[in-house]
Amino acid sequence: MRDLPLPKVYQLLEPGPVVLLTTAAARRGRPNVMTLSWHMMVEFEPPLVACVVSSASHSFAALRARRECVIAVPAVELAPKVVAVGNCSGRDTDKFAAFGLTPRPAARVAAPLVAECFANLECRVADTRLVNRYDLFVLEVLKAWSDPARKRPRRTIHHHGYGRFVVDGEAIRLKSRMR
Ligand SMILES: Cc1cc2nc3c(=O)[nH]c(=O)nc-3n(C[C@H](O)[C@H](O)[C@H](O)COP(=O)(O)O)c2cc1C
């Protein structure tokens, strides 16, 4: 065993897949989209998802003010756009227009779905107790969409840090007591 620098720990435990998180305009302005890889499931039903949305981001202010968002799940074909979305800010860029992503109205929230993604999850903020401390929002999924035109395998992308991504690969079946 060798010493592993602590800043590299997150690369071992990446929760994957990289997703897009959209928000409606906070006051004036436009809908926005950011790239997010720090998220995890915390409950089956209703589905709860914990997400770290940096307070330095434009999305943070919109999420805190509107208390809702959409988590859109892209497949590998969208990877270059997904990374580009994560390398700029909605403060000065209309990212839907700049990256050719199509916003679609959602059913339960004002934030838009992303038409190019194979799944979209409409969410409301369910718990903000860890926002001040860790920028961590617990979201409840109110409505979920899946695109039937995009059949499996839908190969998601997983961030291993510093520009390295792994693409979801072979599926295997094993008996598991976990749902
Ligand atoms: C692969 C990738 C993963 C990212 N994951 C996160 C994340 O989990 N949380 C976060 O706050 N920012 C994350 N970012 C950075 C944001 O996407 C980036 O700051 C974004 O441009 C913020 O946009 P906004 O200012 O329009 O909200 C990630 C960026 C990339 C490229």
Describe the structure.
The model has no long low-confidence stretch (mean pLDDT 93). This protein has helices spanning 9-12, 58-66, 79-85, 95-98, 131-134; strands spanning 19-23, 32-36, 39-43, 48-52, 68-73, 103-104, 113-114, 119-127, 136-146, 157-161, 164-167. The chain contains 5 helices and 11 strands. It has a 7-stranded antiparallel beta sheet. A two-stranded antiparallel ribbon has the order 6-7. Helix content is 16%, strand content 33%. With 179 residues, the chain is α+β, with helices and mostly antiparallel strands. Flavin mononucleotide (FMN) binds at residues 18, 32, 34-38, 52-54, 57-59, 83, 86-91, 159.
Mean pLDDT: 93
Q: Give Rg in angstroms.
A: 16 Å
- Unreliable sequence segments: none
Helical run tally: 5
Helix content: 10-25%
Largest sheet, strands/sense/barrel? 7 strands, antiparallel
Descriptive terms for the model:
single chain, alpha+beta, binds flavin mononucleotide, 179 residues, globular, 16% helix
Provide a brief overview of the structure.
With 179 residues, the chain is α+β, with helices and mostly antiparallel strands. The model has no long low-confidence stretch (mean pLDDT 93).
List the helices and strands and how they pair.
Blueprint: H1 9-12, E1 19-23, E2 32-36, E3 39-43, E4 48-52, H2 58-66, E5 68-73, H3 79-85, H4 95-98, E6 103-104, E7 113-114, E8 119-127, H5 131-134, E9 136-146, E10 157-161, E11 164-167
Antiparallel strand pairs: 1-2, 1-5, 3-4, 4-9, 5-8, 6-7, 8-9, 10-11
